[in-house]
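for the writeup, i need someone to sanity check this before i put it in the appendix. the sequnce is what the collaborator sent (i think, or maybe the updated version? ugh). structure was predicted straight from it, no edits. if anything looks off just tell me and ill rerun, i have time this weekend
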Amino acid sequence: MLETLITSKTRIKLLLKFFLNSDTKAYLRSLESEFGESSNAIRLELNRFEDAGLLVSSAAGNKKLYQANRTHPFFGELNNILFKFVGIDEIIEKVLRKIGDLHSAYITGDFARGSDSQVIDLLLVGGALNRAYVANLVEKAEKVIKRKIRLLIMTEEEAKVYITSNQALLIWEK
């Protein structure tokens, strides 16, 4: 697992935070309260990632905001590894490619905010999807990824409204 490759739990949290959803921006103090770890440990890891070019920073008032560097050569690879670590790749393979009139799929909730969780919030946007069949596929995917999946199915109009008030990470589109 990723945890055996990366020894620092702070590093894993930072990777999930910034590379699962690359739109995520955060500053040191917000990460300190979110992770429940010392600011010094987080600062050291942020500096390592920034020195390696994996994170970029910008000033926002008196705060230094960090964000994933999408232009880094390893950005795509890190993103793919994290999708596999979380199980999103299995959701795409076992659920999304098999359910018919699906227009798009999003991850919302904790993972869209870049936080690890045992529950993946999955928003499916499409026409007449067979809810019973989708629920069956989700149940099978849960066993493979060893996480629970909370499912929302919406029309495109409903999803537009929902996404404007909730952070969403697009994982599949027709």
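Residues 28 and 153 are 36 Å apart (CA to CA). The chain has two domains: 2-68, 87-173.
thx in advance!!
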